């Protein structure tokens, strides 16, 4: 259980060519393999409709998991993102219904998400509560508030213009895919090309060394948890637009897949290793697996079982490869 | 036991006020606000209803003392509550159902311990994975439906009396006594203290640390199985979402009871008081007609407060 050596990215900017790119290549290969397998096993996989659907689902999953990636990079965890999505979707949905203004709804959703993330950050930094238990407590607080607020009701029917955000197309591609590209670029640049990003890696790799070398650890952790909450708020907006309805339990089944995406994507739970792009690949692989199960007409009851097994497998593979490498 | 007894009294004196005062404050508060609270039937109700929680919180204390966590307990309880219902229906024997439930629970516990101890996966993620697996299996074996038509014998486990004392309360006393003996009077118990406090020292002393951890998690699984049986007896049916989230109440009880998440300090009596605190809180809020969703939020706030004070204590 001793800390094994962790790699810091070589220098500010750029992937660690030998290790990181190879890791990503493996994962892309795995995704490709699943695609080949599914196109052989089912007739419907290789249809344009299904491929676009997979891309859209993977984008949605990425939005939930992108901010979480940064948290895991600091060797923390945010278990509250699913409940965050649930509550912010309900609040944003109400605002849109009451005011008729989607813009206001989007702002409220993202704002509430950010505040929740900030609260997590404060618990972890100022109150010094371990992140997994602080965000786990937050999960139940948010879920309780969402259920109480909705009282079993569903908010249904949003303006068509707003729904475009989740279910619309532009030049033949679903709109969430464009958002995906934008946020993938932002996330990658933030993590790989900025000092803040490099400091996040440093904190995850060795918090004591990071503090001693003058990195404002608490400030960066606050930032990371706030980003995670904000991304959950954003994801809730896209989900709202996609589903055209909001219920209290909308985000309940999202936390485990989000963590799975991050871990499949090669981000280490022990901090300091991983990329935002990897999380996208992870989301893609998970979506492909779940989509394939759907096409093969395997009951949805199997999904939590498979996702849970994938989480464990991903962490185990991470431990194995790191043990061998060092 | 001996070397721990030297340091324990100080820690205990500092801890008693926290959880006990919280419990007394809650009891006083609810007694003042709702007339039905301080009655014998209601208080006995609180005790009976807290039994399931106690069965989970006792092993959770040991697991948390090893700097671990078991998020899968609620889902495993759900699965075993279905297993006991299905096996009893199929074979007509409650005993077989009970054994099957405990076996399934223990298997999950062993799997948790194996993932944590042998594969080195952080406990909160390993058990989150098995939570998903148990939840999935619950949906699969039940097909998403309730399992009804239980024989009367199962109901008796929850509603039965022995010498005018409800059976669940006797069960709770027996479980508490067993865990007290296990933690304070056996080698395994002493190792549990050391597993959280100084695992490397234990390893260098030649203790099979991995095996100990697996045993601790297996006990957790077995107790979740037992609690599942009690749950089915209480509802007179197996339900595919019966115990989801119960692990949080258990973790809350342990945290409120003053067991630390980071240093391997634990206190079994604190957990008992923590269970009563959570039980009284939920019962009192129920009497005040506060929806269960808000109760969950209240428990969440309780946990964060408890951890905050724990953090304060550890710094001073």
SSE layout and pairings?
The complex is a heterodimer of chains A (326) and B (316).
Chain A lengths: L16 H25 L6 H26 L7 H19 L2 H24 L5 H20 L4 E2 L3 H8 L1 E2 L2 E2 H19 L1 H11 L1 H6 L4 H27 L1 E2 L8 H10 L11 H20 L6 H24 L1
Antiparallel strand pairs in A: 1-4, 2-3
Helix pairs in contact in A: 1-12, 2-7, 2-10, 2-11, 2-12, 3-4, 3-5, 3-10, 4-5, 4-10, 6-10, 7-8, 8-10, 11-12, 11-13
Chain B lengths: L1 H32 L6 H26 L7 H19 L2 H25 L4 H20 L9 H8 L1 E2 L2 E2 H19 L1 H11 L1 H6 L4 H27 L10 H11 L11 H20 L4 H24 L1
Antiparallel strand pairs in B: 1-2
Helix pairs in contact in B: 1-12, 2-7, 2-8, 2-10, 2-11, 2-12, 3-4, 3-5, 3-10, 4-5, 4-10, 6-10, 7-8, 8-10, 11-12, 11-13, 12-13
Please count the helical segments of chain A: 13
Rg for CA atoms of chain A: 19 Å
Arithmetic mean pLDDT of chain A:
87
- Derived from helix and strand composition plus strand pairing, the structural class of chain A reads mainly alpha
Oligomer: heterodimer
Give the neighbour order of strands across the main sheet of chain A: 1-4
DSSP strand count of chain A: 4
What does this structure look like?
Chain A has helices at 17-41, 48-73, 81-99, 102-125, 131-150, 160-167, 175-193, 195-205, 207-212, 217-243, 255-264, 276-295, 302-325; strands spanning 155-156, 169-170, 173-174, 245-246. Chain A is an all-alpha fold and 326 residues long. Chain A has one domain (17-325): ABC transporter involved in vitamin B12 uptake, BtuC. The radius of gyration of chain A is 19 Å and the shape is globular. Chain B has 2 domains: 64-183 and 194-244, no CATH class; 248-307, no CATH class. Chain B has helices spanning 2-33, 40-65, 73-91, 94-118, 123-142, 152-159, 167-185, 187-197, 199-204, 209-235, 246-256, 268-287, 292-315, and strands spanning 161-162, 165-166. Chain B has a two-stranded antiparallel ribbon with strand order 1-2. In chain B, α3 runs parallel beside α5 (123-142). Chain B is globular, with a radius of gyration of 19 Å. Chain B starts with a helix and ends with a helix. The interface between A and B is large, with 46 and 47 residues.
């Amino acid at each position: 259980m001793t800390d094994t050596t962790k790699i810091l990215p070589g220098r500010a900017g750029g992937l660690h060519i030998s290790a990181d790119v190879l890791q990503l290549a493996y994962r892309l290969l795995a995704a490709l393999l699943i695609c080949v397998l599914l196109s052989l096993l089912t007739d419907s996989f290789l249809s344009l409709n299904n491929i676009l659907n997979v891309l859209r689902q993977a984008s949605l999953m990425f939005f939930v998991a992108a901010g979480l990636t940064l948290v895991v990079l600091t060797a923390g965890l945010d278990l509250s993102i699913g409940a965050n999505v649930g509550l912010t979707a309900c609040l944003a949905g109400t605002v849109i219904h009451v005011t008729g203004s989607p813009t206001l709804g989007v702002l409220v959703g993202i704002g509430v998400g950010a505040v929740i993330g900030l609260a997590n950050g404060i618990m972890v930094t100022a109150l010094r509560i371990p992140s997994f238990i602080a965000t786990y407590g937050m999960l139940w607080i948010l879920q309780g508030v969402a259920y109480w607020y909705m009282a079993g009701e569903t908010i249904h029917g949003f303006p068509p213009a707003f729904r475009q955000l989740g279910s619309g197309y532009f030049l033949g591609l679903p709109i969430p895919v464009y958002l995906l590209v934008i946020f993938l670029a932002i996330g990658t640049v933030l993590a790989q090309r900025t000092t803040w990003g490099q400091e996040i890696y440093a904190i995850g790799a060795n918090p004591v060394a990071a503090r001693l070398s003058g990195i404002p650890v608490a400030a960066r952790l606050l930032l990371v948890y706030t980003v995670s909450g904000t991304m959950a708020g954003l994801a809730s907006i896209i989900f709202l637009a996609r589903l055209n309805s909001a219920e209290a339990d909308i985000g309940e089944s999202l936390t485990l897949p989000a963590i799975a995406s991050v871990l499949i994507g090669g981000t280490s739970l022990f901090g300091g290793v991983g990329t935002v792009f990897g999380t996208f690949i992870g989301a893609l692989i998970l979506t492909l697996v779940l989509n394939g199960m759907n096409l093969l007409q395997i009951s949805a009851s199997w999904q939590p079982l498979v996702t849970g097994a994938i989480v464990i497998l991903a962490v185990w593979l991470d431990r194995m490869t790191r043990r061998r490498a060092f | 036991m001996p070397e721990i007894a030297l340091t324990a009294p100080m820690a205990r004196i500092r801890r008693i006020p926290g959880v006990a005062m919280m419990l007394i404050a809650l009891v006083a508060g609810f007694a003042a606000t709702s007339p039905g609270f301080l009655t014998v039937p209601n208080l006995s109700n609180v005790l009976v209803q807290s039994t399931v929680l106690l069965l989970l919180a006792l092993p959770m204390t040991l697991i948390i003392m090893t700097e671990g966590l078991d998020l899968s307990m609620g889902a495993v309880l759900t699965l075993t509550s279905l297993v006991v219902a299905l096996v009893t229906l199929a074979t007509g024997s409650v005993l077989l159902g009970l054994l099957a439930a405990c076996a399934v629970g223990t298997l999950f516990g062993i799997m948790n311990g194996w993932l944590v101890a042998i594969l080195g996966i952080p406990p909160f993620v390993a058990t989150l994975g098995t939570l998903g697996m148990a939840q999935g299996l619950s949906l699969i074996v039940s097909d998403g439906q309730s399992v009804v038509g239980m024989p009367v014998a199962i109901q008796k486990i929850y509603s039965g009396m022995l010498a005018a004392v409800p059976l669940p309360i006797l069960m709770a006393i027996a479980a508490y006594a067993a865990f007290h003996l296990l933690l304070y009077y056996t080698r395994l118990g002493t190792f549990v203290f050391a597993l959280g406090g100084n695992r490397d020292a234990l390893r260098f002393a030649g203790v099979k640390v991995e095996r100990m951890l697996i045993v601790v998690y297996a006990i957790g699984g077995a107790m979740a199985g037992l609690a599942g049986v009690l749950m089915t007896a209480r509802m007179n049916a197996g339900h595919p979402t019966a115990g989801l989230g119960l692990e949080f109440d258990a973790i809350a009880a342990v945290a409120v009871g003053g067991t630390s998440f980071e240093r391997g300090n634990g206190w079994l009596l604190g957990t008992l008081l923590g269970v009563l605190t959570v039980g009284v809180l939920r019962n009192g809020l129920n009497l005040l007609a506060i929806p269960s969703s808000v109760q969950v939020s209240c428990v969440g706030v309780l946990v964060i407060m408890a951890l905050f004070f724990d953090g304060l204590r550890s710094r001073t």
